Amino acid sequence: MSLNACAEIVQRGDPDRFLAAMAAPVPARGVLFPLYAFNMEVARAPWMASEPMIAEMRLQFWRDTAEEIGQGKPPRAHEVAAPLAAAIPPDCAPLLEALVAARRWDIYKDAFEDAAHFDAYLEATSGNLTWAAARALGAAPEAETPIRALAFAAGIAGLLRAVPDLQARGRVPLLDGTPGGVRDLAERGLARWAEGRAGRSLIARPSRAALLALWRTKTTLIAARDLPERVIEGKLDESEFARRGRLLWAQMRGGV
Fold it and tell me: Where are the alpha helices (DSSP H) in 142-213?
């Protein structure tokens, strides 16, 4: 029932990751759904209260949850905590703690301080989530570099898709939101994507299920590079047919 609750949370709040998890082998879903539900709870915490202190408290709950999982303590009484504790090895818990800490940026309306801050945010959010999922599915240490490269590219793509919504909420999501800046960022994402794809042979097949959630990355980055105005207009989404077709192709290949 707890796993079903996690799946429902992901289905409601993160349909792309829900479809990706459903495309994964059945045993992998027991890892992916709890992790994606945890990520959903953390990602939405900064937006669920107008008072920053309440948002901080929500994030602290999940940071404490991750810390306790790492210490081997009994999971908290929450529908996501128990399946999460069962899904990941304790040494993955620090990755999730860092993910929660990075999400504090979402509470406030400050811009990224510099390129290093921007990169650190993507590494701690998209990077840590993807690497934790892959590690829990058996990825070897040598797979971390290509997996993180792919996840970083996916983090850029996800942020570009979210730009209109974030700006409507008073946030400053990009270091350079001009068409030239968007194009450069998309090109950087494509370079990281190519870097990750070049190291695909290092990623054990069972752990590639963690990469299915990245299936929209390359298409989004190409669209943003070729027509950066689409980012501001919120027109990066492809048709539903094309979207699901690409996921099916990724599933058949065993990952991106």
Answer: 144-168, 179-198
